[in-house]
Amino acid sequence: QVGRYFPLARSFPGMSEYTVSGRFVARDGWQAFETAIEAENESVAKERTYANLGSQHGLNRTQIEIDGVDA
Questions:
Q1: Which residue in 28, 70, 9, 8 sits closest to 49, CA to CA?
Q2: How far apart are CA 24 and CA 13, in angstroms?
Q3: Residues 1-13: tens digit of each pLDDT
Q4: Spatial distance between the Cα atoms of 70 and 36, rounded to a whole number of angstroms
Q5: Strand partners, 30
Q6: Residue 21: beta bridge partners?
Q7: What is the DSSP track for the chain?
Q8: Are 20 and 35 in contact (CB under 8 A)?
Q9: Mean pLDDT across the stretch 31-35?
Q10: Share of the chain above pLDDT 90, in %
Q11: What is the rounded end-to-end Cα distance, in angstroms, of the chain?
Q12: In the Cβ-directed half-sphere of 52, how many Cα atoms lie within 13 Å?
């Protein structure tokens, strides 16, 4: 039974999908990225992007530059 103990991810009312693009410091210089984030508004989408990239790549916020957030 899929989703028996951990509910499957669902879209909640009031949440939109945002596309966040920018670049971060990598071993060989700056690496471009583009990611889709479900969030309540643009500022929450930015915060989740900082949190996700920081945890996945071990980066500080100063090592991540967000160029744009599109709905």
A1: 70
A2: 31
A3: 555 666 656 656 7
A4: 10
A5: 25
A6: 34, 68
A7: -TTSSSPPP-PPTT-EEEEEEEEEEETTEEEEEEEEEEESSHHHHHHHHHHHHHHHHT--GGGEEEEEEE-
A8: yes
A9: 96
A10: 77
A11: 34
A12: 14
Strands 29-39, 16-26: pairing is antiparallel
Tokens of 54: 């920081």
**d(C-alpha 34, C-alpha 1), whole Å:** 34
Q: In whole angstroms, what is the distance from residue 18 CA to residue 35 CA?
A: 8
Site of tokens 């989408």: 45
- Both structure tokens of 17: 């999908």
How does pLDDT run across 35-45, given as a tens digit for each residue? Answer: 999 999 999 99
Q: Tokens 């996945």 appear where? A: 56
The residues, any chain, with a CB within 8 Å of residue 28's CB and separated by 6 or more, are none
